[in-house]
Description:
With 268 residues, this protein is α/β, with parallel strands linked by helices.
Amino acid sequence: xxxxxxxxxxxxxxxxxxxxxxxxxxxxxxxxxxxxxxxxxxxxxxxxxxxxxxxxxxxxxxxxxxxxxxxxxxxxxxxxxxxxxxxxxxxxxxxxxxxxxxxxxxxxxxxxxxxxxxxxxxxxxxxxxxxxxxxxxxxxxxxxxxxxxxxxxxxxxxxxxxxxxxxxxxxxxxxxxxxxxxxxxxxxxxxxxxxxxxxxxxxxxxxxxxxxxxxxxxxxxxxxxxxxxxxxxxxxxxxxxxxxxxxxxxxxxxxxxxxxxxxxxxxx
Length: 268
């Protein structure tokens, strides 16, 4: 892992509760030794009980934020999260095209943990056609994979089939997240043209799962930005998120946040 790398440009929405979105992304990248820069796509009003407001940032402003970072600070990887609508997806595709040498981790955020929609229905097609072909790594959960692939996802074998279908849409790798698949063990499947790798562990009985998807994608992006191989980056990210869930601080009355900072305390 190079000490001169680790810059991650995050293009995503802000979570006022601090558990998901840009806030979770920054915490994750920092905890894993990277450097986080951001282009904020929306300001949301939310806490552990749900999202009560979404205020999009103009697409031109988002693009200007991203280009300001890339033109000066630079980046070693790009991670995307909540994008909202077709115009934002198109904007992000342009940004990715201007930085083709950088690996892009695409987290196709569609619905908040509490159920609020974070991606317009018509934008799903735009994600499928514009972002998946530009993804070094796509990180959908089961409902997102169903929307993008058109396949039902209820079992681990379904995860594999959907992952293979998403590869055919142009992603270079797909991390199929199995948190929505029933069972005592959570199994994620990393699908690549060279085969698959599974990551599994006990299902934690906890309501503190807010921001797990954002956190996992940002952790993967940090590893890639630091020069880890794809499998190494995903393995470290998976272990980091599992422990962050296990150590969740217990904040809020709903879907609580993770303990993003645990690796920093381990180093003391």
